[in-house]
Every structure is written in C-alpha cells, then in structure tokens.
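Sanity check record (used in CI):
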Amino acid sequence: MDKSEAFKRNGFSHLRASFTYSMSGARYLLREQAARHEIWMVITASISFGVVRASFAEHLTLIALFILVVCVEAINTAGEAIVDHVSPEISEFAKRVKDLLSFAVFCTLLLFGGFTLSVLFSAQDLQLGMDMSRVLPVETPPSPNNLGHSDNRLA
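Expected output for Diacylglycerol kinase:
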C-alpha cells in the first residue's frame, strides 16, 4: 500500500488504521525502561489509593495524570529518536533538546507524585484522627452555654 492509499481511508477503516498505529506506538513506548517504571508507579499508587479508600474523583485524577505522564513520555521518546536521527554525533543542540524533553517528563512526574502524596497524606491524617487545629490554630467562638463565665452553675 502506498502513501496515497493510506490517506484515502475514511470512516471505520480510518479509525481502525489509527488505532493500529497507536498500538504500534504503545508497543514501541513499552520498550522504554522509563515507561515501564511509570506503569509500576501507577500500579503502586492505585493500590495505595485503594488501601486509604481514596474517592472516585481522586482515582480518576490519578488515571488522568498517568495518561498525561505517558503522553509526555511518548513525546520525549519520539523527540529523542528524531534528535538521534538528525544529529547522530554528540552536539550541544542534541543535548539541549534532550534535556528539555526530559524536563517535561520530570514536571509531569512531579504533578503525579505531588497529587499522590497529597491524597495519601490527607487520608492518613483522617485515619489517624489528627486534630489539624493543633497545627493550624483556629479560634472558636464562645458557646452559648459558656459566655466567658467561670461559674459553670449558670449553664
């Protein structure tokens, strides 16, 4: 099949071809060790979320952030392949591009990790029954039964 035939596809055959190309990309990405580490990362986080009984919305957010990490990892992998093809020798240009791609992955991993830790720590605070008012003092208004009287017989 030549290129012109591929572009003429429409309807269901176009969707099927797009899906096939996407799965090919996913298989390629899974050859990358970083992508496999990210899969273990989301499995571990999901199990932890189950243990602390995270909300449905928190689970959905975790999945959305994982998809974001995978997307940026795919862009990173594609970018590195292009740089390696265009500039096979070691160059400042290649280093700069790869560093920026790596930084993009790092930022998404920070988002994922920060969200995961915030859910786990907030769930731990609730489970331990921590009184956060001791950490952040909150003034409580006087109760109607005790308006500053030291004599409790009036209440």
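Helices lie at 3-7, 12-30, 33-51, 56-86, 92-128. If this sentence no longer matches the regenerated tokens, the check is flagged for review.
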